[in-house]
């Protein structure tokens, strides 16, 4: 009886460890997951290993994962998309030394373009840049094997597919992977302008500043705030004088009523001053891409990226 109990205990521990591994495998393969997909993946991973799981247990599950991952300086982290405000999850590297500043499996010239594009986006007053200005970054590249503007346009589609940038109307802004994996680098670029949104307390790049108190607010936050009948700054109550941009076509509440949003921790401190540039891409989660995700109905961003590179998806992402 004692041997049977020990064997059962070992099998239970193995089942729990396996569903942790399945979740991480999917997260690595996708690059990031929406909150709904993350919870769905957690439940399916647990079920495939014979472990009972409910939506209410997801927060505790992430805590268990992070308790294990802290020894290798990784963490499952959540944040909100800059363009829509939807909650996304990703695996981030908590080491910020020079050796860890490798974020994607791109060519040297592509990495330089990505770095300059992020610098361009964060240097603007509203945290977005036009496609034309993005393509003109080619003229400022230092790498000998510069990319053509046609190649850059195709590469922008790859970056959208991979989640490093997002398109809002005719403008480009930071994508979910950039806000997840490059948060420290973005803060360095913003310098004294690094600010927490007055409404959601997340780091804000794509947004507007109050003309009276200079506090910044995400576009998606001020849209929802204004829609509820408030047309004043939530910090100082001054009238909101900016025109509020229309919502992206794909914006909508990512969170169902039965799936509570999970806020990101450690909002960035607010400061004032001119935006400046920094050096080097920030720490990313690495690119340990698994050949196939365990659950096929979750969008495979890595496969979409490969198709875009082969010319099957080089057009602008929706």
Protein model, in words:
The chain has 318 residues and is an alpha+beta fold. Helices cover 38% and strands 10% of the residues. It is built from ten helices and eight strands. The strands form three sheets. The protein has a three-stranded antiparallel beta sheet. A three-stranded antiparallel beta sheet has the order 4-6-5. The C terminus is likely disordered.
Q: Kindly state the percentage of residues in helix.
A: 25-40%
Distance between the termini: 60 Å
How many strands in all? Answer: 8
The percentage of residues in β strands lies in 5-15%
- Which stretches of 5+ consecutive residues score pLDDT under 50? 5-15, 253-304, 312-318
For the largest beta sheet, what order do the strands appear in spatially? 1-3-2
The overall average pLDDT, rounded, is: 76
Class from secondary-structure proportions: alpha+beta
Helix segment tally? 10
What is the H/E string? HEHHEEHEHHEEHHEEHH
Radius of gyration, Cα only, in angstroms?
A: 21 Å
- Main β-sheet description: 3 strands, antiparallel
């Amino acid at each position: 009886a004692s041997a049977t109990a020990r064997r059962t205990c070992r099998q239970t521990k193995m089942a729990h460890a396996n569903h942790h591994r399945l979740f991480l495998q999917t997260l690595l393969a996708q690059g990031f997951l929406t909150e709904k997909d993350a919870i769905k993946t957690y439940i399916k991973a647990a079920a495939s290993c014979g472990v009972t799981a409910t939506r209410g247990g997801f927060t505790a599950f992430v805590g268990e994962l992070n308790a294990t991952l802290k020894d290798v300086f990784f963490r499952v982290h959540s944040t909100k998309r800059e363009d829509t405000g939807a909650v996304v999850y990703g695996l981030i590297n908590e080491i910020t030394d020079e050796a860890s500043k490798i974020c994607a499996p791109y060519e040297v010239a592509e990495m330089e373009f990505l770095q300059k594009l992020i610098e361009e986006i964060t240097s603007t007053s509203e945290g977005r840049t036009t496609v034309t200005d993005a393509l003109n970054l080619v003229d400022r590249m230092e790498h000998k094997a510069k990319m053509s503007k046609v190649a850059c346009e195709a590469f922008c589609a790859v970056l959208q597919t991979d989640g490093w940038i997002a398109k809002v109307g005719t403008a480009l802004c930071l994508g979910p992977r950039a806000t997840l994996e490059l948060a420290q680098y973005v803060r360095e670029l913003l310098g004294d302008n690094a600010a927490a949104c007055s409404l959601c307390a997340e780091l804000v790049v794509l947004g507007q500043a109050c003309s009276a108190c200079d506090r910044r607010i995400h576009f998606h936050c001020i849209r929802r705030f204004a829609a509820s009948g408030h047309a004043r700054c939530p910090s100082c109550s001054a009238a909101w004088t900016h025109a509020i941009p229309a919502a992206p076509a794909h914006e909508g509440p990512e969170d169902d009523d039965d799936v509570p949003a999970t806020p990101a921790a450690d909002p960035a401190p607010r400061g004032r001053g001119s935006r400046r540039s920094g050096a080097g891409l920030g720490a990313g989660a690495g690119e340990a891409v698994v050949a196939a995700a365990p659950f096929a109905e979750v969008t495979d961003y890595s496969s979409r990226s490969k198709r875009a590179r082969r010319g099957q998806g080089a057009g602008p992402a929706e």
